[in-house]
Design brief:
Pnp Oxidase, Chain A, 7-stranded antiparallel sheet
Length: 159
């Protein structure tokens, strides 16, 4: 079945961005929270529906973060980060971490991973990574991490 053409006004970037976001939302992805420790030792976390595996040898993953997100400063300064794959019962945590607020970690239970990054309890999978590359891409920063530690559990992930 062919997708009907939708006319857009190329001059109106806001309309194009809204149409682009709407079209991209038709492709379901898992929901993750990327975490790191700030320079002050305080945990930071942000909702990220953008997470993919890149390589098995060496094990690499990729996340991308909005260039104005508060957590990005900590990710640039820090060496390690975590990717926590959320489960269906953690939907509220997903909403909480996606809100535009200064302390997205408020009220969130976590424990330090092997690398010291904050990790969430009860997640189906967690990846602890060392940053190996950061690439500016439009209004986001692509972050490639080498997986140093991974844990997987038998829970259905949130999509």
């Amino acid at each position: 079945m062919a997708v009907p053409a939708v006319e857009t006004n190329i001059q109106n970037a806001k309309v194009i961005a809204e149409l682009f976001r709407s079209a991209c939302s038709r492709f379901p992805t898992g929901i993750t929270i990327t975490t790191t420790k700030g320079v002050n030792g305080k945990p930071h976390g942000i909702y990220a529906g953008s997470f993919i595996s890149v390589s098995l040898h060496p094990p690499l993953i990729l996340v991308w973060i909005y260039h104005k997100a508060e957590i990005l400063r900590s990710l640039v300064l820090g060496e390690c980060f975590g990717v926590n794959v959320l489960s269906e019962p953690q939907r509220d945590l997903s909403v909480h971490s996606s809100e535009n607020r200064l302390d997205r970690f408020a009220g969130t239970s976590w424990h330090p991973g092997i690398t010291g990054v904050p990790l969430l309890f009860g997640v189906p999978a967690v990846f602890e990574c060392k940053t190996v590359n950061m690439i500016p891409a439009g209004d986001h920063m692509i972050i490639i991490g080498r997986v140093l530690h991974v844990v997987s559990a038998e829970h259905a992930s949130l999509a």
